[in-house]
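User: Could you walk me through two proteins back to back? I'd like the raw sequence and the structure tokens for each, with a short line separating them so I can tell where one ends and the next begins.

Assistant: Of course. Protein one, sequence then structure:
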Amino acid sequence: MTGELKKGIKGKQEKGSSSSSSDSDYSSNDRESKNRQMQSEFQKIIDGLKQELEVAHKEVAELNQKLTITHEEKEDINSKHLAALSKIQSEDEINMDLKTDAENTGLNKQLDIASKVEAELSQNLEDMKTKKQKLGHGERDSSLTD
């Protein structure tokens, strides 16, 4: 009986080992298949991320180009603004000079008019003095004859 038990156990072990050998082959094939599938999925994810990264790099390059253009436009506008301010200041100075010239011209005209009036008044005064003297002489002459 012990011999039969030993044979039975030995037979079961052989069956078990042959079936476990094919089980391990199946497991190993299954694992390789799963590994390949996972590697394929990982590669797809990596490829997708690479594409997203390339798109992001292109967007960054475009934004940097826009920033450069915007900065250059800002510098151009600032330069034009400073030139316009300088021109305005120059024109303000010219306007002040013109106003001063106009005021001076007006004052000169007034001075000329005042000089003419003064000359006329001086002439009138002289004429009156002359008339007074003539009248004074005439009165003396008439008082002498009276």
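----
Protein two, same layout:
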Amino acid sequence: MLINYESRKRVVRAVLAGKSHQEALAEAQITACERSVYRWMQWYREEGEAGLRERRHGVVWKVTDEIRAWLVECCQETPSWSASQLQEQLQETFGVRMSISHINQIRIDEDVPKPPKKN
């Protein structure tokens, strides 16, 4: 199940009612780590239920199949390129800006190794 405002609220209410974080997560039918639950509790203490609202800004950008294939191909053909070099090439080729963490996540998802670290 997706972790959203309602599911965070259910977990916080369950913890406030005395349940453990594992019990609260199971009851809300979501998976999250203990640290996340403690973070939600802190947000709740600081801001009330408003603190449990989505904190991401903007629209979640989905990578097209074309861009994903291009990234995988670039990583395989030029394995020494860093994520910042791929980011620049992506901007030049497609006019799209993608975060370095997103590029690295695609590398992980597609089992494409990162370039070796420089000494």
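Residues 66 and 94 are 10 Å apart (CA to CA).

Let me know if you want the two compared in more detail.
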